[in-house]
Amino acid sequence: MSAGIPGAGPSKTHDFAITDRHAVFLDLPVTFRFDLVGQGMPDAWDDGCAARIGIMELDRPGHVRWLGIDPCYVLHVGSAHTDAPGRIVLDGARYSAADTVAMWSRLGGATPATPATPAADAAALGVARLHRWTLDPATGSVTETARDDRPVEFPTLDDRLVGRASRYLHAVSDGADAPSAAEARGIAAIVEYDDATGAADTHPLDAAAGEAVFVPAQDGTAEDDGWLLTITTRRDGSASQLLVLDAADLAGPAVAAVTLPRGVPAGFHRSWIED
Fold first, then answer.
1. Cα 30 vs. chain centroid, distance in angstroms?
2. pLDDT surpassing 70 at residue 66
């Protein structure tokens, strides 16, 4: 079954989330612009577009309820689930208005009129930060909470828990502890967020890391019984490595580091598929 969902405009909807009961859509103030075609990425921040999250019950396709949120942009959601009171809890990598413009410029896109908020220091990199939205379908209320202030992207979790509550969320940091934008460009880490304790463990790296993919242990019982796989790439173009980390001891040494025959350009997404 298919159903159309009317939108407010040509917003760039790159990702969405699901829970056991809902699909969750993002309609945010980055829009496609024909006048920017040929100038890189034809997407731009539009102050005239409201930021909102849509919730759709899975058994009512096409019926979406939109809830307004503070202006921002989200390329990648991390996890979503329905909590005990029936609220939708959504985690994602949130860009502010200034961060969005800087990020688009860094990726090679055009830079339209920058919002009034200045992008300075680390914000000049166009970085996202892990954020949580709690949406209540019964009341229409939305609560927004910053989970961390370090720059992160590509949040991931155990694929078996997509749409359900999960304790751990993983992300890639590029400049987690840097005091300035210039220094942030050379720092990378894999970050593991523990929703039960609020802690965030890191595995510092000396190379840029791709999205961390969780591979469960065959006989594992705990949620973190398994490994995190990521491809790291040095900025000098030398050979990349497939890095294997113990998800239960992220701060510890790598389980394995497999040097690849050549450098692999930093990529975006991958999935583990059993043989």
1. 16
2. yes
d(CA 149, CA 193): 13
**pTM of the complete model:** 0.85
Tens of pLDDT, residues 67-85: 999 999 999 999 999 999 9
Cβ proximity of 71 and 40 under 8 Å:
no
Token pair for 174: 């590029």
For the sheet containing 152-156, what is the strand order?
A: 152-156, 168-173, 188-194, 200-205
- Tokens, residue 209: 């890391």
Structure tokens given for 151:
């720059």
State how far the alpha carbon of 78 is from the alpha carbons of 81, 128, 215, in Å. Answer: 11, 12, 17
Residues 10, 157: Cα–Cα separation, whole Å: 29
**Residues with Cβ within 8 Å of residue 59, at least 6 apart in sequence:** none
Tokens of 179: 């005091």
**Confidence class of residue 33 from pLDDT cuts 50, 70 and 90?**
confident
Give the separation between CA 132 and CA 77, rounded to whole angstroms.
10
